[in-house]
Design goal:
- By secondary structure, the chain is an alpha+beta fold.
- The protein has one domain: Spore Coat Polysaccharide Biosynthesis Protein SpsA, Chain A (Alpha-Beta Complex).
- Helix content is 39%, strand content 13%.
- The strands form two sheets. Strands 1-3-2-4 form a four-stranded mixed β-sheet, sandwiched between helices.
- A hairpin with an 8-residue loop joins strand 5 and strand 6.
- Helix 2 runs parallel beside helix 4 and helix 4 packs parallel to helix 5.
């Protein structure tokens, strides 16, 4: 399953990049398109980039791997990740918390560089007035997610097992 934002920011031709990465490394459960691994053609405004880099710094420490673009809405999921998120998916601004969920459930993710464009239409739900609210809300969601009990999604089709995973 491919996730894309509806604002024209993601280049449909880059779906092949996500698929190639998942084919190259089958144990990976989610491939995320990143605009920060290398020059992507579009960088968000500095205020938004600052928030993204704060989330990337925190998530990188929490999950023990480099995360460069935790707010990217350009993602490819395999069956195991779909199974997880069909049962339990974060609300409001889910991309950042979803990375932590993958880690808690022992699913693997990888980022790949992709080309992105400036917003082609619509308006962001995160206006300058809401950016502080967004930062606080997502940071609080990450903190709560650290201690939340969630069903574990194992490989295969067996039923989930309830468990709490610490870091």
């Amino acid at each position: 399953m491919v996730q894309v934002d509806g604002d024209g920011q993601h280049d449909p031709a880059e779906i092949a990049t996500l698929m190639d990465e998942m084919d190259r490394d089958p144990p990976v459960d989610m491939v995320c398109g990143s605009r920060f691994i290398q020059e992507s053609g579009y960088l968000p405004p500095i205020s938004r980039r600052t928030g993204i880099h704060i989330f990337a710094f925190l998530l990188s420490r929490l999950v023990g791997q480099p995360i460069t673009d935790p707010t990217s809405g350009f993602r490819l999921y395999n069956r195991r990740a779909i199974r997880l998120f069909a049962r339990d998916y974060p609300h409001d601004y889910p991309e950042v918390e979803a990375v932590l969920m993958l880690h808690h459930h022992r699913l693997r993710m990888r980022e790949v560089p992709v080309r992105m464009f400036a917003r082609g239409g619509g308006a962001s739900s995160i206006t300058s007035g809401k950016s502080v609210y967004y930062m606080v809300k997502v940071l609080l969601a990450l903190f709560v997610a650290l201690f939340r009990s969630r069903p574990v999604v194992e490989s295969g089709d067996e039923a989930p097992v309830a468990a709490t995973h610490g870091l």
